[in-house]
Amino acid sequence: MKSERPRQLSTAEERRETVLRTAIGAFAARGYWGTTTSEVAKAAGISQAYVYRLFPNKELLFTAVVEHCFVRVRASLERAAADAPGSSAEVVLGAMGDAYARLISDNDLMLIQLHAQAAAVSEPAVREAVRQGYAHLVEYVRGASGGTEAQVQGFFARGMLCHLIVSMGADEVDAPWTRTLTAGVRHY
To answer: pLDDT, tens digit, for every residue of 115-127?
Structure first.
């Protein structure tokens, strides 16, 4: 006789993580306005009512996804700073920049960031999540690198340029304007 194991039920936290992972793909593909909670629920294999139990509305689900992505960015920058081959601001910022360029080669993460910035224009809760995410990242980068205001600003400006280059595939076009935009910018 085959011994049957008792079925293990997922905890709410495990379900929450499943919904977040699923929502990242859904929101990356269709953005804040184009994604429904029923699509996320179906992809996660749970009911829409359960999604609403975990996240009372789509806005809270999306802001949780945005916050999750900022946590991933921060963790990547922390690893890069810890592994940097030196301690000068330039070296640490360079290591973090390379790590970020690798990280946004994950299109879902980059798309969430782009969709969040677009939604932040008209959605106050998303705007606040984006502000808080960048506030924490800027302070982390400043502290970890010891960089000047101009260096830290340049780091984030280069990150935005990386988004632009990757999102429009500028590195795939050989033209004077793309060579200008991509010169000295790492992307994967």
So the answer is: 999 999 999 999 9
**150-162: per-residue pLDDT in tens?**
999 999 999 999 9
Please say whether the beta carbons of 152 and 138 come within 8 A.
yes
Task: Name the nearest CA neighbour of 182 among 74, 77, 101, 99.
Answer: 101
Alpha-carbon torsion, ordered 31, 34, 36, 41, to 10 deg: -50
One-letter amino acid for residue 59 of the chain: E
Asked if 168 contacts 178 with a C-beta cutoff of 8 angstroms, the reply is: no
Question: What are the respective helix, strand and coil percentages of the chain, to the nearest 5?
Answer: 75, 0, 25
Predicted model pTM: 0.89
Summarize pLDDT for 77-89 with one digit per residue, the tens: 999 999 999 999 9
